[in-house]
């Protein structure tokens, strides 16, 4: 296309290599996802220690040279898995922050995380990762970073609610936040839906727990208590 014509009509002139670059990027993303899915299957089947890079290569039907192009180690694979999970949790935090009720927001976040872990069949995988984090400093660093990031979001959310006078927790955040995080993680890792726990009943119990831990004002307690 003539450059003058494109300028006059406001048409973009595409670099013929743009499509190729996009295609290369897409292919790389597909290959990375292929490795991650294979690694997840191997970690669940053989455990983190038992799953070798060779086993992951076989599961992904990929040569060692190709796999190492994307990930130099199992620790790097776990970091990518956790990073993807952080992105998945974004909608959870958006729903929590958009909720006008602090109690409803925390309950929503907890139920979303429990359901997501169950529906995506992540329980066994993350139980294995958490177990390995107690032995492997690199994995522990990744898990700690993830927990810290989630903790910061909850801290900001609850601190703002305290400042507005909406809640009055009976203990300080140094005790409250680790406790809330531990309860949420424990419920997710125990796969309560998979154990037959009724989600409606679980929501009632979660709400009672959150009310006790946050001590909201009357108006907040009254929200969605049917």
Task: Please outline the helices and strands.
Elements (H helix, E strand, L loop, with lengths): L2 H6 L9 H33 L2 H8 L3 H7 L3 H15 L1 H9 L3 H18 L3 H11 L3 H27 L9 H17 L9 H16 L3 H4 L5
Helix pairs in contact: 2-3, 2-5, 2-8, 5-9, 6-7, 7-10, 7-11, 8-9, 9-10
* Average pLDDT: 84
Derived from helix and strand composition plus strand pairing, the structural class reads mainly alpha
Radius of gyration: 23 Å
Question: So how many helices?
Answer: 12
Fraction of residues in H or I helices:
over 70%
Oligomer: single chain
Largest pleated sheet: none
Order of helical and strand elements? HHHHHHHHHHHH
Total beta strands: 0
The parts where pLDDT drops under 50 for at least 5 residues are 1-18, 222-226
Shape assignment: elongated
- Approximately what portion of the residues adopt beta-strand conformation? under 5%
Instruction: Give the CA-CA distance, first to last residue.
Output: 65 Å
Short description:
The chain is an all-alpha fold. The protein has helices at residues 3-8, 18-50, 53-60, 64-70, 74-88, 90-98, 102-119, 123-133, 137-163, 173-189, 199-214, 218-221. Helices cover 76% and strands 0% of the residues.
Overview of the molecule:
- The protein is mainly α and 226 residues long.
- 76% of the residues lie in helices and 0% in strands.
- The chain has helices spanning 3-8, 18-50, 53-60, 64-70, 74-88, 90-98, 102-119, 123-133, 137-163, 173-189, 199-214, 218-221.
- The longest helix is centred in the first third of the chain and has 33 residues, at 18-50.
- It is elongated.
- It starts with a helix and ends in a 5-residue tail after the last helix.
- The model is unreliable at 1-18 and 222-226 (pLDDT under 50).
